[in-house]
Amino acid sequence: MKMTNDELMASLKTLLGRERDVMVEVLLHLGEVEARGLHLQLAYSSMHVYCVEALNFSEHQAFERMTAARALRKFGVIADVMRDGALHLSGLAMLAPHLTDGNHEALIAKARFQSKRAIEVIVASMKPEAPKPDRVKPIVPRIKALGPALVEGFMSFAPAAPAPAKAPVEPRFAISFSASQRVKEKLDRARALASHRVPSQQLEAVFELALDALIEKLEKQREGAATKPRPQPTPTPATLHSRTIPRAVRREVHQRDKHQCTFTHDGRRCTERAFLELHHLHAFALGGPTTTQNLTLRCRAHNAYEGERLQL
Ligand SMILES: [Zn+2]
Q1: What is the model's pLDDT at position 163?
Q2: Ligand 1 centroid, distance to 47 Cα (angstroms)
Q3: pLDDT, tens digit, 9 for 90 and up, residues 230-286
Q4: For residue 65, is pLDDT > 70?
Q5: In terms of pLDDT, which residue wins out, 83 or 140?
Q6: How far does the centroid of ligand 1 lie from the alpha carbon of residue 84, in Å?
Q7: Distance between CA atoms of 230 and 56, rounded to whole angstroms?
Q8: What is the 270 CA–ligand 1 centroid distance (Å)?
Q9: Quick check: 86 pLDDT over 70?
Q10: What separation in Å is there between the alpha carbon of 2 and the centre of ligand 1?
């Protein structure tokens, strides 16, 4: 790099200006892709999934950029503030949920050239009661605080102790969230009721029991998974042409489609497994029957997308 120091610093400044311009353009493009629903067409259930899987953003980058992209689409004035370098991406992502038609100009002005920490304070002062965000964080085990030599030295003092078996370490997670008084009371009640099964009263064990019960209940509801499969009734004209989908049909469709959205584009299948809905391939409104063959699983986004397409 054959530059003088002054040239180097000037060049860096120019590059950063260009980087901000490009960033704003990227955000505007992301907003437009979302508005046109192009990610849905390409078999991604959300822009977040599209950003992570197709654009290779990290989860955090995807979250920040999409939050910023939506704010930018809504409040055009932000674009120039970002181009000037007066508001960084992280700052905008923090402010975005609090921006309204009425306050965005004042809030953006307050956040100009502020650090991430200072913007955190601005946001916190707006909503002092803002709940702590939910967190699920892997716990990284501390690997041998003592070096191997020291450990060996230590071991030699205790020859009687058998060498501990090298059991694979199960990953652990720290999970935290804030909860209302109502939820706290339910937790206390569940803990008390489960005390015979969880004598330790450990929260983890109580939560696992609660989740098992919830999963079993929801799976039954969603898939119509009867504990004892009943003999399947022969479809009558009444069931074929009813919007109510029989449990057995529901279960069959879920199992056949492997509990995943079946929307496909160019050989890529949507990966969504949450909020699945049953979709009539041949539209119900146009006389499509309620049968396993005519039903398929769609995520909420793709079900809505196809519903809109049908109305075009
Ligand atoms: Zn989908």
Answers
A1: 53
A2: 12
A3: 555 555 665 666 778 888 999 999 999 999 999 999 999 999 998 899 999 988 888
A4: yes
A5: 83
A6: 38
A7: 46
A8: 5
A9: yes
A10: 52
User: Whose CA is closest to 213, among 188, 184, 193, 183?
Assistant: 193
Q: How many angstroms does the Cα of residue 186 sit away from the middle of ligand 1?
A: 34
Kindly give the distance from the C-alpha atom of residue 309 to the centroid of ligand 1, in angstroms, as a whole number: 15
Q: Which residues are within 5 Å of ligand 1 (an ion), measured at CB? A: 45, 261, 263, 270, 272, 299, 302
Q: How far is the CA of 269 from the centre of ligand 1 (A)?
A: 8
Residue 152 has pLDDT above 60, yes or no: no
Residue listed under structure tokens 């519903």: 307
Residue 159 predicted with pLDDT over 50: no
- Among candidate residues 173, 164, 174, the one with its CA nearest the CA of residue 144: 164
Residue 153 has pLDDT above 50, yes or no: no
